[in-house]
Amino acid sequence: xxxxxxxxxxxxxxxxxxxxxxxxxxxxxxxxxxxxxxxxxxxxxxxxxxxxxxxxxxxxxxxxxxxxxxxxxxxxxxxxxxxxxxxxxxxxxxxxxxxxxxxxxxxxxxxxxxxxxxxxxxxxxxxxxxxxxxxxxxxxxxxxxxxxxxxxxxxxxxxxxxxxxxxxxxxxxxxxxxxxxxxxxxxxxxxxxxxxxxxxxxxxxxxxxxxxxxxxxxxxxxxxxxxxxxxxxxxxxxxxxxxxxxxxxxxxxxxxxxxxxxxxxxxxxxxxxxxxxxxxxxxxxxxxxxxxxxxxxxxxxxxxxxxxxxxxxxxxxxxxxxxxx
Length: 325
What we know:
Layout: E1 7-9, E2 22-29, E3 40-43, E4 48-53, E5 58-63, E6 68-74, E7 79-85, E8 90-95, E9 100-105, E10 111-116, E11 121-127, E12 132-137, E13 143-148, E14 153-159, E15 167-170, E16 173-178, E17 183-188, E18 193-199, E19 206-212, E20 217-222, E21 226-231, E22 237-242, E23 247-253, E24 258-263, E25 267-275, E26 278-286, E27 293-297, E28 302-307, E29 316-322
Parallel strand pairs: 1-22
Antiparallel strand pairs: 2-29, 3-4, 4-5, 5-6, 7-8, 8-9, 9-10, 11-12, 12-13, 13-14, 15-16, 16-17, 17-18, 19-20, 20-21, 21-22, 23-24, 24-25, 25-26, 27-28, 28-29
């Protein structure tokens, strides 16, 4: 069902004269890694990348400047997301297998702290100004837990209608994808309560989320192959586009006004923003089946994509640069 007022632009491949938005710069093989990946984080100053190899129960560390794999850190239980705090030289790794968030020294990778939650710990976001870490928790229920990183203490939680997937922190508000309810929950950090629920009418299974902070637009990916765009002033849907199936990571490239969507179907779909409410499909970059985990690092002008190990392909990290560099 298409929501009222939405603009639907169907995908078309870029013309032969139009270059792809990203070009492959490096491929780093990971022959020791089995299975797939979840999310990653970057140490911009040190040009390091930290990748959660969830099926391998490891954290993989890379030198992006040299284009090489540095080390594999073992001992996790289905690592999901990674947050890096440069000022504290700490890494936070959520674990789906045991509901923990494990804290490591980012130089030695020695354990520094551990937080345990009732069920699966998944998505992480960090507010550096407030020194607060937000943790998506749940499998049979849902909440956003709040950790005071300065005090190393869990200080509260906000209940949800179902388990959370990707979310964004926006001042006093948090926008959370809740696929079971097929809505975006809007949470107030001051009252520690949900204050609104915005339906995602474009499709079900709303999992990944991206945010254009300039135009105040949320990008919501739905697993069947839809991208919905919501206005954060009202929660209204302003656009919807067909994309490839199984979107997993969505990033907004503000200077180029492009949206990058990595999809498990084996593509990076690129959407061009014409203005805040109008979008067009720009190009589709072939990748590999299941390669859905990505990270865009605007400071380094790098787009990193993890390719999972299967019977037909070995695991690797692909690093892309802008095609106009």
